Protein backbone atom coordinates (compact mmCIF):
# COMPACT_ATOMS: atom_id res chain seq x y z
CA UNK A 1 0.00 0.00 0.00
CA UNK A 2 1.40 3.42 -0.96
CA UNK A 3 1.26 6.61 1.02
CA UNK A 4 -2.03 7.56 -0.61
CA UNK A 5 -4.72 5.03 -1.44
CA UNK A 6 -7.72 5.68 -3.70
CA UNK A 7 -11.22 4.32 -3.19
CA UNK A 8 -14.38 4.77 -5.25
CA UNK A 9 -17.32 6.45 -3.54
CA UNK A 10 -20.17 6.76 -6.02
CA UNK A 11 -19.05 9.03 -8.85
CA UNK A 12 -16.03 10.45 -7.03
CA UNK A 13 -12.68 8.84 -6.41
CA UNK A 14 -11.80 9.56 -2.79
CA UNK A 15 -8.26 9.36 -1.48
CA UNK A 16 -8.19 7.78 1.95
CA UNK A 17 -5.49 8.26 4.51
CA UNK A 18 -3.26 5.20 4.57
CA UNK A 19 -1.86 3.65 7.72
CA UNK A 20 1.23 5.20 9.28
CA UNK A 21 4.23 3.89 7.33
CA UNK A 22 6.57 1.46 9.03
CA UNK A 23 9.94 2.97 9.94
CA UNK A 24 11.51 -0.47 9.47
CA UNK A 25 10.72 -0.21 5.75
CA UNK A 26 12.64 3.07 5.56
CA UNK A 27 9.63 5.05 4.33
CA UNK A 28 10.69 8.43 5.73
CA UNK A 29 10.32 10.44 8.92
CA UNK A 30 7.31 9.95 11.17
CA UNK A 31 6.08 12.66 13.56
CA UNK A 32 3.91 10.54 15.85
CA UNK A 33 0.55 11.59 17.33
CA UNK A 34 2.05 12.35 20.76
CA UNK A 35 4.92 14.46 19.42
CA UNK A 36 5.00 18.28 19.32
CA UNK A 37 7.89 19.95 17.51
CA UNK A 38 8.60 23.69 17.80
CA UNK A 39 11.22 25.37 15.63
CA UNK A 40 12.65 24.45 12.24
CA UNK A 41 12.54 20.97 10.72
CA UNK A 42 14.63 20.05 7.64
CA UNK A 43 14.30 16.70 5.88
CA UNK A 44 15.50 15.15 2.63
CA UNK A 45 13.06 12.25 2.91
CA UNK A 46 9.27 11.89 3.04
CA UNK A 47 7.57 13.12 6.23
CA UNK A 48 4.38 11.70 7.77
CA UNK A 49 2.86 14.07 10.35
CA UNK A 50 0.35 12.70 12.85
CA UNK A 51 1.49 15.07 15.63
CA UNK A 52 2.03 18.84 15.69
CA UNK A 53 4.66 21.10 14.18
CA UNK A 54 4.91 24.80 15.06
CA UNK A 55 7.52 26.62 13.00
CA UNK A 56 9.22 26.13 9.63
CA UNK A 57 9.22 22.88 7.68
CA UNK A 58 11.58 22.35 4.73
CA UNK A 59 11.24 18.98 3.00
CA UNK A 60 13.01 17.97 -0.22
CA UNK A 61 10.33 15.31 -0.78
CA UNK A 62 6.67 14.57 0.09
CA UNK A 63 4.67 15.48 3.18
CA UNK A 64 1.49 13.80 4.42
CA UNK A 65 -0.44 15.57 7.18
CA UNK A 66 -2.56 12.84 8.78
CA UNK A 67 -6.15 13.47 9.92
CA UNK A 68 -4.97 14.20 13.48
CA UNK A 69 -1.84 16.07 12.30
CA UNK A 70 -1.42 19.84 12.56
CA UNK A 71 1.15 22.28 11.20
CA UNK A 72 1.39 25.96 12.11
CA UNK A 73 4.04 27.75 10.07
CA UNK A 74 5.74 28.05 6.70
CA UNK A 75 6.18 24.90 4.58
CA UNK A 76 8.47 24.30 1.61
CA UNK A 77 8.32 20.89 -0.09
CA UNK A 78 7.92 18.97 -3.35
CA UNK A 79 4.33 17.91 -2.64
CA UNK A 80 1.92 17.78 0.29
CA UNK A 81 -1.33 15.91 0.99
CA UNK A 82 -3.40 17.43 3.80
CA UNK A 83 -5.84 15.18 5.68
CA UNK A 84 -5.47 17.22 8.91
CA UNK A 85 -4.90 20.96 9.46
CA UNK A 86 -2.32 23.39 8.13
CA UNK A 87 -2.16 27.06 9.04
CA UNK A 88 0.61 28.82 7.15
CA UNK A 89 1.98 29.49 3.69
CA UNK A 90 3.05 26.59 1.48
CA UNK A 91 5.57 26.62 -1.37
CA UNK A 92 5.35 23.23 -3.11
CA UNK A 93 7.38 22.64 -6.27
CA UNK A 94 4.91 20.05 -7.61
CA UNK A 95 1.53 19.57 -5.90
CA UNK A 96 -0.71 20.55 -2.99
CA UNK A 97 -3.81 18.46 -2.23
CA UNK A 98 -6.37 19.29 0.45
CA UNK A 99 -8.18 16.02 1.08
CA UNK A 100 -11.86 15.69 2.09
CA UNK A 101 -10.98 15.87 5.80
CA UNK A 102 -8.28 18.53 5.34
CA UNK A 103 -8.16 22.20 6.25
CA UNK A 104 -5.66 24.72 4.84
CA UNK A 105 -5.49 28.37 5.85
CA UNK A 106 -2.67 30.20 4.11
CA UNK A 107 -1.27 31.30 0.77
CA UNK A 108 0.12 28.72 -1.64
CA UNK A 109 2.54 28.49 -4.58
CA UNK A 110 2.53 25.29 -6.64
CA UNK A 111 2.12 23.77 -10.11
CA UNK A 112 -0.95 21.65 -9.23
CA UNK A 113 -3.56 22.44 -6.55
CA UNK A 114 -6.45 20.11 -5.74
CA UNK A 115 -9.15 20.80 -3.17
CA UNK A 116 -11.16 17.59 -2.79
CA UNK A 117 -14.92 17.84 -2.07
CA UNK A 118 -15.24 18.50 1.67
CA UNK A 119 -11.73 19.97 1.94
CA UNK A 120 -11.35 23.56 3.20
CA UNK A 121 -9.01 26.18 1.72
CA UNK A 122 -8.79 29.84 2.68
CA UNK A 123 -6.03 31.95 1.16
CA UNK A 124 -4.45 33.06 -2.08
CA UNK A 125 -3.00 30.76 -4.70
CA UNK A 126 -0.17 31.41 -7.12
CA UNK A 127 0.12 28.75 -9.80
CA UNK A 128 3.60 27.97 -11.11
CA UNK A 129 3.98 26.87 -14.72
CA UNK A 130 7.53 25.59 -14.45
CA UNK A 131 8.62 27.43 -17.58
CA UNK A 132 11.43 29.97 -17.68
CA UNK A 133 11.29 32.42 -20.57
CA UNK A 134 14.73 33.54 -21.68
CA UNK A 135 15.91 36.53 -23.68
CA UNK A 136 17.36 35.15 -26.91
CA UNK A 137 20.13 37.79 -26.97
CA UNK A 138 21.65 37.33 -23.53
CA UNK A 139 20.18 34.04 -22.23
CA UNK A 140 18.55 35.98 -19.39
CA UNK A 141 14.97 36.35 -18.31
CA UNK A 142 13.26 39.22 -20.14
CA UNK A 143 12.54 42.47 -18.37
CA UNK A 144 8.96 43.38 -17.48
CA UNK A 145 8.78 45.76 -20.46
CA UNK A 146 9.74 43.06 -23.00
CA UNK A 147 7.58 40.37 -21.41
CA UNK A 148 4.45 42.51 -21.10
CA UNK A 149 1.63 41.68 -23.48
CA UNK A 150 -0.94 43.98 -21.90
CA UNK A 151 -2.33 46.15 -24.74
CA UNK A 152 -3.10 48.97 -22.29
CA UNK A 153 0.57 49.14 -21.21
CA UNK A 154 1.72 49.31 -24.83
CA UNK A 155 -0.78 52.09 -25.56
CA UNK A 156 0.37 54.09 -22.51
CA UNK A 157 4.00 53.84 -23.65
CA UNK A 158 3.13 55.04 -27.16
CA UNK A 159 1.19 58.03 -25.86
CA UNK A 160 4.10 59.00 -23.58
CA UNK A 161 6.43 59.53 -26.59
UniProtKB/TrEMBL annotation:
Disordered as annotated region, ranges: 1-25, 132-161
InterPro entries in UniProt: BacA/B
Residue runs in coiled coils: none
Family: Belongs to the bactofilin family.
Name of the protein in question: Polymer-forming cytoskeletal protein
Organism of this sequence: Sulfidibacter corallicola
Amino acid sequence: MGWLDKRRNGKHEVRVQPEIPSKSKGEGTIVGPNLIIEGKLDSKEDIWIAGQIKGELDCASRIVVAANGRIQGRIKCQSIAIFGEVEGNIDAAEEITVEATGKLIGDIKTKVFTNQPGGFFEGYSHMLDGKVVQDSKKGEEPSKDKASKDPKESKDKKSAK
